[in-house]
Specification:
4-stranded antiparallel beta sheet; 6 strands; two-stranded parallel sheet; 10 helices; 484 residues
């Protein structure tokens, strides 16, 4: 009958264990705009196609693609993120282990002496018995928390959601890393282009100085012309060290992203290359797709899931819990009888834990968890709104950057024509050298502005890709145990 009672209790506990307290998580939603706002541009158009998860390939720059391929393997922040995923996965397994049967074995030996003045003095000892004896014990203890109202199940659910949040955090790190790499690379090529423009103008200024000196020697030019030409050459040369410093800093910034020591990439990146051209068109998806793609939104959703599960944990704490426990082993005063049948001992039965008075701890904990859940909802909504804003701002900035670049290009063409005309007129003696100096300064300024504008347009496009949330896939490490 005793075993039947235990069996009935076990069966009833298993039936009750299907009851999980607290609210179930439902994926949050927000009414998204039907489409992104459009800005007219003359070059690279945006359209509502699927977002390119390898957008750096659209620049058709082999060096950039090579750097990104190494980034996924070498970046230390990504490696730290991978370890955090392993930590979160282990915590989830620890939480899940609480719902499984537990078993522990212990064995002991002790030589004991009982006090003649202690509690045993109240009993009459068996004739011939000694107060000194050996005691051998061997016990196998088992227990199983039936988790009647889902405390453990909700804890596992919360830890699994935390693992998902950690995975999303690593994806956010990957997106930031590839965006920073592409931005630094675009800026590097822009700086190198500005150096090439400046060196070209320095050579031109040096040629002009030689021309003025020859004309002065022939009595055609004045001391003022010579001084102006020399000052212009010195002024241009003074700008070169600053650009070289920026180039070195950008190479080191890229090296840091690849976990390389300073100057390790100089031989690879120092040779100048053209600034990557813009892609002909940029797919930007739909606003409603953004919440399923951006890592920060997915991370906020996972944290909301964890907070909801924690409410279930706090709710289940108000209800009784049953743990089935059993002990089986042997106990003997003699090593020879340690494993004999009469030396056996065992106990089995349930333990019922009922919260009666906790001093307000359970109520306060539940209030705290509910407040944390409401906070997570608001945080998620704010993250989604900010994501939509970032994309819209980035699209506007990209369109305006292209318009600025087009106007800057027109300015460069006009300044180049003006300089060529002024230089030709000076050689013919039709004007003084001041006009040559002024038009060359304007040409250099417009050339630099054009290169800077190109760099700004490229980095603005990178910012748009980052806001769209695509590109973290390059750093994924497939695992059958991962949760997406």
């Amino acid at each position: 009958m005793k075993f039947q009672s235990v069996s009935a209790l076990l069966t009833g506990g298993l039936v009750l264990s299907a009851c999980t307290m607290g609210p179930n998580f439902h994926r949050p939603t927000m009414d998204a705009p039907a489409s992104w706002g459009s800005e007219p541009s003359s070059e690279s158009q945006t359209y509502a196609g699927a977002v390119d998860t390898q957008w750096w390939q659209s620049f058709h720059d082999p060096e950039l693609s090579s750097l990104v391929s190494r980034l996924g393997r070498q970046n230390l922040d990504l490696q730290i993120g991978a370890e955090r995923i392993s930590e979160a996965r282990s915590q989830m397994k620890v939480a899940a282990s609480a719902g499984l049967p537990q078993a522990n074995w212990s064995g002991s030996y002790a030589y004991r002496q009982l006090s003649k003045q202690g509690i045993f003095s109240l009993a009459e000892p068996r004739p011939g018995s000694s107060m000194n004896f050996n005691l051998y014990e061997n016990v196998l203890s088992t227990s199983w928390d039936l988790d009647l109202f889902g405390t453990i199940r909700r804890s596992v659910e919360a830890q699994r959601a935390n693992e998902t949040a950690t995975l999303a955090a690593r994806r956010a790190t990957a997106l930031a890393a590839v965006s920073d790499l592409a931005t630094s690379y675009m800026q590097l090529r822009g700086i190198q282009q500005q150096q090439a423009i400046l060196r070209s103008n320095i050579d031109l200024a040096r040629t002009s100085l030689k021309l003025v000196q020859d004309r002065f020697a022939n009595g055609v030019a004045t001391n003022l012309d010579v001084s102006q030409a020399a000052a212009q050459l010195a002024s241009m040369s003074a700008d070169l060290p600053g650009l070289e410093n920026s180039e070195a800093a950008l190479i080191n910034a890229i090296g840091l992203l690849l976990a390389e020591p300073p100057r390790a990439l100089e031989a690879e990146l120092r040779p100048a290359s053209i600034q990557p051209p813009l892609p002909a068109s940029v797919p930007v998806g739909l606003p409603s797709d953004l919440t399923r793609r951006r890592p920060d939104v997915l991370q906020g959703e996972a944290r909301l899931h964890a907070a909801t599960a924690e409410v279930g944990v706090a709710t289940a704490a108000f209800y009784p819990d049953i743990t089935l426990a059993g002990n089986m082993g042997t106990e003997s005063f003699s090593a020879a009888d340690f494993f004999s049948l009469p030396a056996k001992q065992f106990s089995v039965g349930p333990t019922l834990n009922v919260p009666v008075f906790e001093g307000g701890r359970l109520i306060s904990t539940l209030q705290f968890r509910k407040a944390a859940q409401r906070e997570a909802v608001l945080t998620w909504r704010n993250t989604v709104l900010n994501a939509w804003r970032e994309v819209d701002d980035a699209m506007t900035a990209y369109a305006k950057a292209q318009s600025t670049h087009s106007l800057t290009e027109q300015s460069f063409f006009q300044n180049r024509a003006a300089f060529n005309a002024a230089r030709e007129r000076y050689q013919q003696g039709a004007t003084d050298y001041l006009n040559v100096v002024a038009t060359q300064a304007a040409l250099l300024s417009s050339q630099s502005a054009l290169s800077i504008s190109q760099t700004r347009t490229e980095t603005t496009l990178v910012a748009l890709y980052r806001a769209l949330g695509g590109g973290w896939q390059y750093a994924e490490t497939p695992s059958p145990a991962s949760h997406s």
